[in-house]
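Quick one: co-fold with shikimate-3-phosphate.
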Amino acid sequence: MNVVLIGFMGSGKTTIGQRLAKELKYVFIDTDAVIEKKLNMPISKIFHCFDEYFFRRLERKILIDTNPKKHFVMASGGGMPCFKNNIDIMKTKGLVVYLKVPKWRISKIDKTNRPLFKKAKVLINKRKYCYAKADIVIENYKIDTTLKKIKQTMR
Ligand code: S3P
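Sure, here it is.
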């Protein structure tokens, strides 16, 4: 069973995704990293040189093109599930896990290379309905506990 991690910036999708993929011996796909590699520029520059819509179309293409037979763990960008019907497509590809950021951690999130962080408050509110469509929701307090919960659900 594949796993698609969704959640707000800084919710731990990359950290959890890397660990989970390693433990399961699955391929790890970090959509931000795929896009950065493709364009050979950091996310902040992509947003500066192009626009958000351009970025969202790239994210959506990665999602659509990902072969569900591959055995993967995907760490998606924070806004990815909420563009068009991406969340529904995600659910056809694997188990969609929403990693919730504990509120106290939001101010501690690294803002470099996160151009949309300045709109965090508005975005969190706007996205909560979309994130809630995930198959499971986990408050990501502790890496090991989160990993255990995901693996339990996969059984
Ligand atoms: C975004 C989140 C970022 C990245 C881009 C846009 C968002 O990914 O895709 O800066 O809209 O929330 P992370 O969630 O990995 O920070």
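If it helps, The longest helix spans residues 52-65.
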